[in-house]
Write a structure and sequence with these properties.
The chain is of the alpha+beta class. The chain contains 8 helices and 6 strands, in the order βααβββββαααααα.
Length: 257
């Protein structure tokens, strides 16, 4: 697998993550430094029998927010398992990890969007407890990775007509999953034949477009995207007899995902 690419001008090395200054404790808030989070999760990965292939990170808010992606040894011939790791030392988000996949051939990265959250940073959270929580989270994450991989690969079974693809495109732009400025890029990739006319191809096109997105927001956007596609799979798609009426009707079916 070639070197993975994380997006954003704030991409950093693990050494830089470790060098972020610690935040002083208070009576009610005991921020866990990124270094200890990464050490604990690394132990949890090893304990579950997986190997770490590659690690990359971004930082925000003077280093107090960290998001990392680890590519793991599980998966299939087409994709590897990945996990997203988030931590903050400014009370902005709970420490947690989320399931993901990275496609080998194009390195498109996708997340389930759902995080397995650890306990909040409170007084009394010692490293031994953190390491045990990381192990428990990774045990759950293996199941989540297996489930997300199956969902991701299952998208290949859904062939998209041009009308259906356009309906989905309007929906994801309406939900600001990708901005209107990315329409030309999406159009070239999907309708230009770079990706297959399936939900898998549609999903890969969106994740390709999101390469320019801030990695810190990627899980949230992926969660919205996955919800739109799941609703589409569950809905009774109407092939157009009257194109405009069918377009509006099928968009209506996606309105409540």
């Amino acid at each position: 697998m070639s070197q993975s690419i994380l997006i954003g001008s704030n991409k950093v090395t693990e050494a830089m993550v470790i060098q972020v200054p610690e935040v002083p404790f208070t009576n009610s808030f005991h921020p866990v430094h990124h270094k200890y989070v990464l050490d604990a999760i690394r132990s949890g990965v090893v304990a579950t029998g997986l190997e770490i292939i590659n690690t990359e990170y971004v930082l925000a808010n003077n280093g107090n927010r960290m998001f990392g992606v680890w590519d793991l040894s599980g998966g299939s011939d087409e994709l590897c398992w990945s996990i997203g790791i988030r931590n903050s030392m400014d009370k902005s988000m709970a420490l947690g990890i989320t399931a993901g996949t990275r496609v080998f051939v194009c390195e498109n990265l996708a997340f389930s969007g759902e995080f397995v959250e650890f306990r909040k940073h409170t007084k009394g959270l010692v490293y031994d407890e953190l390491e045990f929580m990381a192990y428990r989270a990774m045990k759950k994450m293996v199941a989540n990775l297996t489930k997300f991989q199956a969902w991701h690969e299952g998208l290949k079974e859904f062939i998209l007509s041009e009308m259906a693809a356009k309906i989905l495109l309007v929906e994801i732009m309406t939900r600001n999953i990708i901005p209107p400025s990315k329409f030309a890029q999406f159009n070239e990739l999907y309708f230009g034949g770079v990706y297959d006319p399936t939900l898998w191809g549609f999903h890969e096109t969106v994740t390709d477009v999101l390469r320019d997105n801030n990695l810190l927001t990627l899980p949230k956007k992926n969660k919205l995207l996955n919800g739109v596609l799941e609703t589409f799979m569950d809905a009774s798609y109407i092939e157009p007899s009257s194109p405009l009426a069918a377009f509006y009707e099928n968009r209506h079916l996606l309105a409540h995902c």
